[in-house]
């Protein structure tokens, strides 16, 4: 987009740093915001590592890596987004946190710009309702790992207008991604289909249908999935999986979306997957 040059990214976690990475590599200036300095440092170091991986694989040159790193500024204050041309929010998946961020972004940023959310399951219509510009609020849902996965789910809230939708579609294309348009219903498409599959795999494990390795192998070898569902749940984070299942259960109201008791138990025990070193599998080394 010729009129979009500076992108604000809110949240430097797994998704936020991946989003900053792909925008910077595509030639945009990026302002990456997080409440914690530590999170920003960690996010930048992940971007550096992932860009280096792309250099090693000869996907990009060393100069492109340096240019991308040089295009990212960091800050701990949302006020730093005052002059950006587009914002994408990738903060924690907590409704109240996101609502507050959007209320603030609405006041801070120029009122003609689009405010997008990378939410994986929270209603875009409800997020948009926190602002005075619901027609310019939209979902731009990237997949993990962001530099690798081609999909961007583009979610239209009830009030989202065509201009906003076109803006996000063009941006996604410029990042080399494939945008797919979806209406605002719980879980959109990606998580409405993916999470019940993961949840069912956890039921299979809980009921002793087979071992975790066997469940994953069936889906990898039989269905060509790059990761088995239990391995993927660990990769996504079991807390994230549980919170999305709750959104599906509450929003669609059917028993088939009830979170598996074993998933609840794993989250209660703090076994959240790769990020804690322990999930269905052990990542301690
Ligand atoms: N940054 C940049 N490049 C990366 C990367 C990263 N973070 N992670 C992996 N890569 C690259 C590697 O360099 C490699 O590149 P080449 O193909 O050029 O060699 C390629 O990706 C594959 O990586 P690896 O060989 O290291 O590992 P792999 O073959 O086991 O693949 C994987 C890893 C891409 C993660 C693959 O296992 C996969 O696709 N898994 C499924 C991921 C998935 O389903 N994601 C969606 C999760 S759901 C979600 O995100 C939505 C939500 O709301 C919860």
In angstroms, what is the radius of gyration?
A: 19 Å
Mind summarizing the main beta sheet? Answer: 8 strands, mixed
Small-molecule components bound: acetoacetyl-coenzyme A
- Report how far apart the termini are: 44 Å
Q: Name the helix and strand elements from N-terminus to C-terminus, one letter apiece.
A: EHEHHEEHEHEEHEHHHHH
* Low-pLDDT segments, ≥5 res: none
Number of strands: 8
- Share in β-strands: 5-15%
**Mean pLDDT score:** 97
What is the spatial order of strands in the main beta sheet?
3-2-1-4-5-6-7-8
Helix content: 40-55%
Helix and strand content put the structural class at: alpha/beta
Which features characterize this protein?
47% helix, eight-stranded mixed beta sheet, 285 residues, globular, alpha/beta, single chain, binds acetoacetyl-coenzyme A
Describe what you observe in this structure.
- The protein has 285 residues and is α/β, with parallel strands linked by helices.
- It is 47% helix and 14% strand.
- The protein contains 11 helices and 8 strands.
- The protein has helices spanning 14-25, 37-56, 62-70, 95-108, 124-128, 162-174, 190-206, 212-223, 229-236, 238-252, 261-268; strands at residues 6-10, 29-33, 72-75, 86-89, 114-117, 137-142, 151-156, 178-183.
- An 8-stranded mixed β-sheet has the order 3-2-1-4-5-6-7-8, sandwiched between helices.
- The longest helix is centred in the N-terminal third of the chain and has 20 residues, at 37-56.
- The chain is globular and about 55 Å long.
- The termini are far apart.
- The mean pLDDT is 97.
- Bound molecules: acetoacetyl-coenzyme A.
- Residues 50, 53-54, 57, 120, 143-145, 147-149, 190-191, 194, 226-227, 232, 236, 240 line the site of acetoacetyl-coenzyme A (CAA).
- Acetoacetyl-coenzyme A (CAA) is lined by residues 50, 53-54, 57, 120, 143-145, 147-149, 190-191, 194, 226-227, 232, 236, 240.
């Amino acid at each position: 987009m010729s009129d979009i040059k500076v992108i604000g990214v809110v949240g430097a976690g797994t998704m936020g740093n991946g989003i900053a990475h792909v925008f910077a590599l595509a030639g945009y200036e990026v302002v990456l915001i997080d409440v914690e300095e530590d999170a920003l440092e960690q996010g930048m170091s992940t971007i550096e590592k992932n860009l280096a991986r792309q250099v090693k694989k000869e996907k990009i040159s060393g100069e492109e890596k340096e240019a991308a790193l040089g295009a990212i500024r960091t800050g701990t204050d949302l006020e730093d987004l005052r002059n950006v041309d587009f914002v994408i929010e990738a903060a924690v998946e907590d409704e109240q946190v996101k609502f507050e961020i959007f209320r603030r972004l609405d006041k801070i940023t120029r009122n003609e710009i689009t405010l997008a959310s990378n939410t994986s399951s929270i209603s875009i219509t409800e997020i948009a309702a926190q602002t005075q510009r619901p027609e310019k609020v939209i979902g731009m849902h990237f997949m993990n790992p962001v530099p690798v996965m081609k999909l961007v789910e583009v979610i239209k809230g009830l009030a989202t207008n065509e201009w906003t939708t076109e803006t996000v579609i063009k941006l996604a294309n410029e990042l080399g991604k494939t945008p797919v348009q979806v209406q605002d219903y719980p879980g959109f498409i990606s998580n409405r289909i993916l999470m019940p599959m993961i949840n069912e795999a956890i039921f299979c494990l809980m009921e002793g249908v087979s071992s975790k390795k066997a469940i994953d192998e069936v889906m990898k070898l039989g269905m060509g999935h790059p990761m088995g569902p239990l391995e993927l749940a660990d990769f996504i984070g079991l807390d994230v999986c549980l919170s999305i299942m709750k959104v599906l259960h509450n929003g669609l109201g059917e028993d088939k979306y009830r979170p598996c008791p074993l998933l609840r138990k794993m989250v209660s025990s703090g076994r959240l997957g790769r990020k804690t070193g322990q999930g269905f599998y052990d990542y301690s080394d």
